[in-house]
Amino acid sequence: MKAAFGELWDLLFHPPIAHRGLWAADGAPENSLAAFQAACSAGYGIELDVQRTADGEAVVFHDTTLERMTTASGRISDHTAADIAALRLKGTDETIPTLADVLTLVGHRAMVHIEIKTPFGEVGPLERRVCEVLVDHNGPTCVIGFNPYSHAWFADHHPRILRGLNSYSYGGRDARTLSPEIRKKYAALEHVTIAKPHFLALSVDMLPHPRATVLRKDGMPVIGWTVREPAQWDRICSHCDNLIFEGFAA
Q1: Is-contact 236 229, C-beta < 8 A?
Q2: 40-78 per-position pLDDT tens digit
Q3: Residue 151 lies in a domain
């Protein structure tokens, strides 16, 4: 696999990856241009989230709805890109950037892990827009995400894009939209066969994981997320190749 991706593959292992940029509660908000600039300046990789607007733009924002991070309400997917651009993050002057905005800012300075927030049953439109943006960017990037059918779409349509499958224990309230059978399969990493990823991005709550251990021995890197203190990393580091972190200097 390293032979296929070269230096891009090496960036999966180092440097550590700043979760939603290098943000802080009293500083740059998450998924903001300021947070991404801070990550670049500190020499870290970057993880970010992309959602699709009503008119098809890929914007960088984690939540499905706007309430937590802005004074607006409603779903990102019900607003146009112009509506979104007019908002401010967490009472700051920072706007919600498009994916193109972020990649222009970052350039070649950091590997960008683009988490595709595609709901189940809606694969295609957001993936296509992300690919359109990536055509105009030659810095290091990869796509990550929880939806295995999104990964399968990339594998079929753009196999040269590096892909990482996200997973976690699927035991919380946010997993209840999936059937118990699906949750069990995903927690066991049985959806790897659907997604056909190049690497795994696994939550700290499922590490170590027996199947991940086998896949890692067979050459599939494992990145742990979200590590929020050094003690967490100390516990899982022997089972991972890198970390997505926040709240401390990794």
Answers
A1: no
A2: 999 999 999 999 999 999 999 999 999 999 999 999 999
A3: yes
CATH at residue 39: 3.20.20.190
Omega before 159 cis (within 30°)?
A: no
Count the domains in the chain: 1
Q: How far is CA 59 from the centre of its chain?
A: 13
pLDDT at 1: 79
- Measured between alpha carbons, how far is 8 from 92 in angstroms, rounded to an integer? 34
| pTM: predicted TM-score of the whole model, two decimal places | 0.97
CA dihedral (60, 65, 71, 72) in degrees, to 10, reads 100
Tokens standing for 241? 């190749």
Residue 50: strand, helix, or coil? strand
Count Cβ atoms within 10 A of the Cβ of residue 71 and give its class: 0-12 exposed, 13-18 middle, 19 or more buried. exposed
